[in-house]
Amino acid sequence: MSDIMKSIPFGQLMEWVLEEHKKTGQIFGIQKAYVADPAKTVEIFGRKLENPAGPAAGPHTQLAQNLVAAYYAGARFFELKTVQKMDGPELSACIPKPCIVAEDEAYNCEWSTELYVPQAMEEYIKGWMILHVIAKEFGLGSPDGFQFNMSCGYNLEGIQDKKIDDFIEGMKDAGDTAIFKECREWLLKHVDLFEHVTREDIEAIPSEICNSITLSTMHGCPPQEIENIVTYLLKEKHIHTYVKCNPTLLGYEFVRKAMDDLGYDYMAFTDFHFKDDLQYEDAVPMLKRLMDVAAQEGLSFGVKLTNTFPVDIKRQELPGEEMYMSGKALFPLSISVAARLAESFDGKLPMSFSGGVDQKNIDQIVDCGIWPVTVATVLLKPGGYKWMTRIAEKTAACQIGKSGEVHVERVTKLAADALENANYQKNSKKAGKRKEEKSPLLDCLRKEDVSERKEFTVHKRVCGNCADVCPNRANVLIEVPEMELLQIIHVDYMCNECGNCRSFCQYAGAPYKDKFTLFANEEDMKDSINNGFTVLDAKNKEIKIRIGEKEEVVRADQPSGILNKGLSQLICTVIDQYAYLLM
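Above: the chain sequence. Below: its structure as tokens.
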């Protein structure tokens, strides 16, 4: 199958959101909506923020539907997926697939958006517009209660390139962009679809999307290059800037011992990146100089802790030679960097955080005065975006202090505890035995101990892991009236073959390859070997279907040949009741 995602038109996204919510009370399969408490609003970068938690730059902030799903689940701070000069198919060709495995600690071998940079900007703007609308339409919070944060890399030459400069300026103010105008026009033209959103609400959606940026640099980036980029962003682009730091600041001996003591002695890495990356003795004076530059410009400057950690591929976890570790094994390293910097700066260096954050430690991090906090790995686990809701709820219960005031003693204690805490140790339990066969096209495993009631929200007695863990929402649960179980459709155009769903399927194989697939068109179907279909004429239910090596053009409502009764019922349901899935 093709691993190239297609951008969903804004109108289709809005119709999807409104229709799914009306039918099931969900949005992109997210079952529980988070409603913000206005009394908990804080401020950063001169803007309001209902909750300082959200998705990190990564698989959950690449597409508009990711952003919408995360917001509905409780996210309010969005670190958008990193853009760089190299993009599109050129970048995608450099990323081996599958590229994510998150069974215990997580690994990945992807880094920045696989879209073209202008496409990425369109996705972010579409997400921005939808969030403003659904905030009021569904009573989720204030339309000005969330923030988008750009992430750019990886060197000064690339960031000064016209492509990236246009992106930065477009995200600072999207008012003149074609996509902002298109979204606004669609909303105004379809204002009658909303119960609580008015023309005035739509016209009030601000075009100033981002006033902050997180700089991501490659491992081995020289200190002077980092300083030059941040200075450029502060003085020339005049934007609040945080720079992402690496766990290698701790030194090889510290990290090796920490990983060994926590049970990750099999994790392979040399001292190469520790010697090649920014050194701690260079980092501290550089950060102090940049704090002074930011103060002169009247802007915020801080650090993002931390980047993922590079390790060698030794057990075929992913294709290639090197991958990046994240999740629970990363937390002791990231919080140790935070503790060391907090002590060096007497708590006056603003910090945002990402590295093994989950529902168990989010309150501890925020109580240290470290925020915003962004997550990725926990959302790739079974339950998916529901963990975002737990995290948002727990964060809302914290007493959040002023941005940039880190409590040194608290973070030092948290870092010391993390090096011995069982939550961050290697899980010695073996995963349950998987079935030897691949998942069937219809009727996946029954979910155990589930109510006999037929509410959609209990997954209607199916496992549903592949739908939960897909960051792009490409595995969709479909309720077919004639069938007892919910059925799973894999939506080809939303998938980039990250492979995360294979880790949590109870069958052998991988859902993104094995499940019955909906293709946007015949060309996409030709590029794939998946069993599936594409709709040629929805009105007449004419489809092209493939099962194995056989393909037929048939009427979906007339089972014959390779189209059996069950698949006929499923396809007709998609056409009749889930038309928003059709490109």
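Residues 117-137 form the longest helix (21 residues).
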